[in-house]
């Protein structure tokens, strides 16, 4: 018998294995193709994610108790926005049936009061400052800020908790390394622990989380020692028709375009502003006369101008005009003078061009809260209780003319853009017959589009 060399036997054996493997893969591939055809509609297209890098050097240096937000900000307005393609791949928009609304504002502009008007509606789930754990420059932590906003508007509370936990770990680490005054870090850690405890920052500011089912046997939600779980928060959030975020930590409208890409078309923005002279006086008192209020107001006014200009530019852009009909300027001055008109115009705005059940902000619960909370002389800086009719013009009799001139100088464009009349004398300032709040040029109040 002829004997084959071992090397030839090894080659024949190897060839047999290869042929068997190819046969198996061909049969398996046919089965996979059949499954792929059936599941084709379930596969989401991959999209290139575009993001706007920060164009401001926007510092949030905050000293915060759980009921307060105090910050100093500096940023440069001498650059134009630049859009770069990101390598990150985003998921398709969340399948959300309810609406999302962000109230974008700055400190001491009446945002807490305005947010509470939405919070009182039984069909609203309200988030008060969900970006509180992220207190860095505008361009830093941008991914986490956007993820937090998306998580809130889609009721993904685990994502919010994850960011709270990460921020708490970072603060604890900084505390161990700090050699200077650590009081700021200690306050931050204390507040973040409370956020973690409730699975959400400022839980007591969300009416939906203060019912008897989650806070029994106490008359104040802030005293409640029963903390909601992430699942309980998500259930309440998902049951709401409108999810509202109030934040003073949103830097630029273009950053919110990525939120809209994930949420879909049922997403709107209210840009809340206030007479900068009134804001300056309020900040001065909050800081007990310390700090450079004029510099703060320049930053604040530039912020408002930049975002209004962004809206106007996007409105004319046939490709990137998503803000058209989805952005509304609201002046706090108008709210306190005529809250019923605000309800009417805002109801029209939030229901315009959206799917799902309409929502009427002119609701008995909202009106009852308004009646109860606008006849108070309480003076706490972060209270939402105030005499609303006096609040509208009270500042005019209390502010010094030197401060008025300084604010008008650094906020000239903002006042022109948003319809605030300047004064030149103390007599004009105190003349109650002289209206300092005029129509907004080229932009009707309460209208997202003309």
From TrEMBL:
<dbReference type="InterPro" id="IPR000863">
    <property type="entry name" value="Sulfotransferase_dom"/>
</dbReference>
<comment type="similarity">
    <text>Belongs to the sulfotransferase 1 family.</text>
</comment>
<dbReference type="Pfam" id="PF00685">
    <property type="entry name" value="Sulfotransfer_1"/>
</dbReference>
<dbReference type="GO" id="GO:0001517">
    <property type="term" value="F:N-acetylglucosamine 6-O-sulfotransferase activity"/>
</dbReference>
<protein>
    <recommendedName>
        <fullName>Sulfotransferase</fullName>
        <ecNumber>2.8.2.-</ecNumber>
    </recommendedName>
</protein>
<dbReference type="InterPro" id="IPR027417">
    <property type="entry name" value="P-loop_NTPase"/>
</dbReference>
<dbReference type="GO" id="GO:0006790">
    <property type="term" value="P:sulfur compound metabolic process"/>
</dbReference>
<keyword id="KW-0808">Transferase</keyword>
<dbReference type="GO" id="GO:0006044">
    <property type="term" value="P:N-acetylglucosamine metabolic process"/>
</dbReference>
<dbReference type="InterPro" id="IPR051135">
    <property type="entry name" value="Gal/GlcNAc/GalNAc_ST"/>
</dbReference>
<feature type="domain" description="Sulfotransferase">
    <location>
        <begin position="101"/>
        <end position="417"/>
    </location>
</feature>
